[in-house]
Amino acid sequence: MTEKTTGASYAAAGVDIEAGDRAVELMKEWVKKTQRPEVLGGLGGFAGLFDASALKRYERPLLASATDGVGTKVDIARQLGVYDTIGHDLVAMVMDDIVVCGAEPLFMTDYICVGKVHPERVAAIVKGIAEGCVLAGCALVGGETAEHPGLLGPDDFDVAGAGTGVVEYDRLLGADRIRTGDAVIAMASSGLHSNGYSLVRHVLFDRAGMSLDQHVEELGRTLGEELLEPTKIYSLDCMALTRTAEVHAYSHITGGGLAANLARVIPDHLHATVDRSTWAPGAIFDLVGKAGQVEQLELEKTLNMGVGMMAVVPQESVEVALTALADRGVDAWVAGEILDRGDRTEGATLTGSYAG
C-alpha cells in the first residue's frame, strides 16, 4: 500500500493568496477617492499610470521624489488595534517632504508588509493612506501588500510609501532664495507626528510604566489616543501659501528636530535663530521629558517640540503669510529670523525659554 503524502504549498507556508485578493477588493473604494484626472487605469495593474502630458503646461518641470515610513508608531497602532490613521502619517511623511521644495504632490504608491493578511485590517490601513492623499491633493496610484510569515508575527506590520511631485524650475524653493532679515514662520504640529517613538516608547512604557489605556489628565485623553494622533499634512497649506505670499523656503520638521531640519535649507553664509519663547510645546513633550528625565537638548534633537513645518519668508510677506495660514486653520506665528552667520558654526539655533 502506497502512503499518500501532502506536498508543500504557498498556503501551507503561511501565505494566503485569497486573503490578499479580498484585501484588494476592500481597498478599491478608498483608492478611487484619491483619483486625479491624470490617473489612468484602476487598482490591480502591475504599475500605476499617470498622464505626463499634464506637465506640458510647465516651461521646465522638475520632478520631486521622496520615500519614507512612519517608524515604530506602527506598534502603537498594532497594540491598540487602530489601523485607519497610520496612513495619514505615511502620506504626511512623504508628501510634506516633497512640498518643501515648492512641488505640487502628484501621486503616491504604498508598501504594506504584514505577517498575516487580515483583509479588513489591510483595507483600514489603505483607507487611512487614501484619506491622507486627499488631504495632500495627490492620487494613490498603486501599491503592494506583502505577506511575510515567519519573518513577522501574525499581527505585525509595517508601512512605507513613495511619492512624486512637480515644480517649475524657476519656482524651486530652497537655500539660494533666503536672504538676511527673512522671517521664520512656525506652523504648529498636531503632536509627536511620526518621529522619536523609539525614545517615547522607552521613556513612557519601559521607564515610567505607563499604559496605552491610561487616562492622562494633562493630555485630556488616554495615552494611546495621544500617541496615535495623526501627523498633520501641510501640503495643500504650503501650496496655498506659496500662491498667496512670497516664500523662500520650507522646512519639514521630522527626525533630528527643529534646528537640524531648519539648518538643511539655510545657506552656508547665513544663520537661522528661533526664539523658544514664541510658543509653548504641547503637554506630551513635557510628559516625555519629565517621565524620562530627558534633557531639553536631547528632546529637541529627537522631537518636533510642537512645530511641524517652517516657512522662511521676506519681512514684507509676513502679514500676508500669517493671514493666509490662519484662513486655512493653520496655527502659525513668527518664531525667528535669518541673520548673517558671523562666527557661528551651526546653521540654526534655538534661543530663550519656552513660553508657559
Automatic annotation (TrEMBL):
Catalysed transformations (reactions): 2-formamido-N(1)-(5-O-phospho-beta-D-ribosyl)acetamidine + ATP = 5-amino-1-(5-phospho-beta-D-ribosyl)imidazole + ADP + phosphate + H(+)
Residue ranges of the TM segments: none
Entry-linked CDD domains: PurM (cd02196)
Locations listed in the record: Cytoplasm
PurM-like C-terminal domain ranges (all copies): 180-343
Pfam family for this entry, one: AIRS_C
Family matches, as Gene3D superfamilies: PurM-like C-terminal domain (3.90.650.10), PurM-like, N-terminal domain (3.30.1330.10)
EC numbers for this chain: 6.3.3.1
Pathway, per record: Purine metabolism; IMP biosynthesis via de novo pathway; 5-amino-1-(5-phospho-D-ribosyl)imidazole from N(2)-formyl-N(1)-(5-phospho-D-ribosyl)glycinamide: step 2/2
Family to which the UniProt record says this protein belongs: Belongs to the AIR synthase family.
Protein name as it appears in the record: Phosphoribosylformylglycinamidine cyclo-ligase
Gene name of the record: purM
